[in-house]
Amino acid sequence: MREVFHQSLEEVQSRLVEISELVTVAIDKATKAFGTSDVALAEEVIAGDSVIDEKSVELDELAIEILAMQQPVARDLRIVVAALRTSASLERMGDLAEHIAQLARMRYPERAIPKGFKSTFEQMGKQDVEIARQLTELLRTQDVAIADAIRNADDEVDELHASVFEKVLGAQTAADAAAVVDATLASRYHERFADHAVGVAKKMVYLATGDWIGPGESEH
Amino acid sequence: MREVFHQSLEEVQSRLVEISELVTVAIDKATKAFGTSDVALAEEVIAGDSVIDEKSVELDELAIEILAMQQPVARDLRIVVAALRTSASLERMGDLAEHIAQLARMRYPERAIPKGFKSTFEQMGKQDVEIARQLTELLRTQDVAIADAIRNADDEVDELHASVFEKVLGAQTAADAAAVVDATLASRYHERFADHAVGVAKKMVYLATGDWIGPGESEH
């Protein structure tokens, strides 16, 4: 029974890694689509999100099957519950990448990226891609030291998010409303993306050490 | 054992109802705080969110305990897993009410509600409060007919959300950047709030009928 459970967990883990890899590709492409107004690339992200959704539902079904058939308790049970939550977070991160791609598509053929914000969104996207890569690595290796790197990168995303609003509100010239809407939403999506990754990382640390950093979100 | 499980489920249900009631109060107060720039009311919502967070964590612990001690299978297992997810959605709805309150506090003593958007946000808030009330009722009665009412109200919120952007982008006068940011974020928070309620309602219908409306989100 113990051996069966161990194999099941390995299956869960490899599927989480797979979904996290798809999410990494999605946020990478979405950032590029948004930065370069590449509508074909945006379409790829949008079409690809249904694959992430399906794989997430399949993983949930597997986790529920494991609960039913193997009835884990104590730490084993918490690992399976954490997998359910991680699946939900990854699914949501995929949605957020899709939303960024939708912004790029919506404004096409105009540029989605508002004037003066190019480098900020490039940095934000770069951090989110790095966070997604690190999250994949954390899920693969269970090396909780990676959680710190994710939190640090999230702090940078939060700073960039705050800087977007400072820039929008401090602009000398009258703002183009569409640009302000796009900057606000894109920045929010990037910030939420990073926040979900931190949430998953916290759960991994909790499972590994029993040290719960705390409920709720780190968002400001 | 069956009787014990039944009692446990009643406890889970009554706690979900309690959290949903707190979320209803939160979105009601947040809407009023945002509409009238009532910073004291905003502070109440912000302080109250930690209670929602705590109760949500406690409910999760109870659900995990039920899984460990009573090892439910089949539909019983799915009910407990659905409770875990509902708890996460309610916690998030509380966060969104808090974010709306934070917008009111951030702009104080100026008005948070952008000029020309008063009635739109009043309607949006009213719909969200109604949705939260209906969700509480759905959790209390398990009457799946209420799920339709929630979906209809969510459609209205989506329309109001779209109208905010139309109004912002179609404005004749140069937009005040702060007003555009606030309108964008507040509208997004209201829309997400309703969306989470629809997600919970879908799970309830699924549990009651086995008829899964589909994964992912209804958001556009």
TrEMBL record, chains A, B:
Signal peptide: none annotated. GO terms for cellular component: cytoplasm. Keywords: Cytoplasm, Phosphate transport, Transport. The keyword Protein biosynthesis does not apply. SUPFAM superfamilies: PhoU-like. It is found in: Cytoplasm. GO terms for biological process: intracellular phosphate ion homeostasis; negative regulation of phosphate metabolic process; phosphate ion transport. It comes from the Bacteria. This is Phosphate-specific transport system accessory protein PhoU. It comes from Microbacterium sediminis.
